[in-house]
Design brief:
By secondary structure, the protein is α/β, with parallel strands linked by helices. The protein has 16 helices and 8 strands. The protein has 2 domains: 2-253, Alpha/Beta hydrolase fold, catalytic domain (Rossmann fold, 3-Layer(aba) Sandwich); 258-380, Alpha Horseshoe (Serine Threonine Protein Phosphatase 5, Tetratricopeptide repeat), CATH 1.25.40.10. Helices cover 49% and strands 17% of the residues.
Length: 382
């Protein structure tokens, strides 16, 4: 049943993106030919002229692009990841030549080296010049191209911040090259590796060896995920791995979940408000996006304050809410709760009353703030 659900979602995504794809013939001097490139711009791209977007580059774009583009649009719609520009490079007639490497050192040679230069020296600069791109880039490959994306990882200044290697057909030396390079990263890098129990035997064995090696890397800048599925074949694995990879890479971007609230926020020894601010600062640092703090996330911190009875944190939460939702009751309500719980009843009453002229939000209504003010007035005979 689960397998059928995955496939239905995959097919729905494919149908959705067909009408939104731009096909661009790219004349490459490095390749000495014209290569077809597929580009999906996010919803509202033309309407938001000041907004920039991460780039997701999909190798094997002739069959992988639609799966990535559809899942990207789906997750972005529900704010589980930022809007992104998805680019697919078609390799249907050139795949073997594109990924060729030396048997001596496992690095690209001849047509493989030309394809490597085409991506780094022609295609990515063109995308940055033509479209409004952020510096955060994701590379996604399958099989031979899942091996190939690692060559960008090995560069002193990598072109991508996230790598999705689905059932990689690894060159001999990559099992040692990759963990050695990951151990030296001084900035955040995402690495996602997926295989299947039903995968090709050599691919599965090498990928499991790579997984063991990466797990041994002691570097907090490496954000690593390994996913081994039971059912898919080598060829169907992308339909399962792509949505999981996107969700894992953009995990910090997602609204605070019940699990995050339960397992992390409720167990904090420090301020949950500071945790919230750091979460959004991380989003800015990683993705270059100044994201407004979601009302859902304010509510999660509010719930934690009430649950732990650490009411002193309401003061900083109120100030933060006034910054992000200045015309609403949210900030005033939190500040009134702070005054109420820290013994300043009259100040709490006046703050509730002052909130009346502001906009209602998230269940905080004019009736609620007046009722809270009236209760304090009655209790203290003001």
């Amino acid at each position: 049943m689960k397998k059928h659900i995955y496939l239905l979602v995959f097919l729905a995504c494919v149908q959705f993106v067909k009408a939104q794809v731009i096909y661009e013939p790219f004349n490459s001097s490095k390749l000495g030919e014209t290569r077809q490139v597929k580009i999906q711009l996010p919803r509202g791209y033309d309407a938001h002229q000041d907004k920039k977007y991460p780039v997701i580059l999909v190798f094997d774009g002739d069959y992988m692009f639609e799966a990535v583009a559809g899942n990207t649009d789906f997750y972005a719609y529900w704010e589980d990841m930022p809007d992104a520009i998805v680019v697919g490079v078609n390799q249907i007639d050139s795949r073997e030549a594109d990924v060729s490497y030396s048997e001596q050192n496992s690095l690209p040679i001849e047509t493989g080296a030309a394809f490597f230069e085409f991506i780094g020296m022609e295609l990515l600069p063109y995308l940055d010049k033509t479209y409004r791109t952020e510096k955060f880039r994701v590379a996604i490959g399958h099989g031979e191209t899942a091996n190939f994306i690692n060559y960008f990882l090995l560069k002193p200044d990598p072109l991508f911040r996230a790598y999705v290697a689905i059932s990689p057909d690894l060159a001999p030396n990559m099992v040692s090259y990759i963990p050695e390079r990951l151990s030296k990263f001084q900035t955040k890098v995402f690495y996602y590796l997926a295989i299947s129990e039903n995968d090709i035997a050599a691919i599965k064995a090498n990928s499991e060896a790579l997984n063991t090696a990466i797990k041994g890397v002691d570097n907090k800048n490496v954000l690593y995920n390994f996913n081994k599925l039971e059912e898919p074949s080598h060829y169907s694995l992308p339909a399962y791995a792509i949505p999981d990879a996107l969700r894992k890479i953009f995990l910090v971007y997602q609204p605070i979940s019940k699990q995050e609230y339960r397992d992390t926020i409720l167990k904090l020894d420090s301020s949950p408000v500071a945790y919230l601010e750091e979460k959004y600062q991380t989003i800015h640092e990683l993705f270059g996006i100044d994201k407004q703090i979601l009302l859902n996330d304010f509510k999660a911190i509010q719930a934690a304050i009430e649950k732990t009875e650490n009411f002193e944190y309401y003061e900083s939460l109120g100030k933060l809410a006034r910054k992000h939702y200045p015309n609403t009751m949210l900030g005033s309500y939190y500040l009134a709760r702070f005054y109420e719980e820290t013994g300043e009843a009259k100040k709490a009453m006046k703050t509730y009353q002052s909130a009346y002229v502001l906009e209602e939000i998230g269940g905080i209504t004019k009736d609620l703030v007046l009722e809270k003010a009236s209760e304090i007035k009655a209790d203290f005979n003001y």
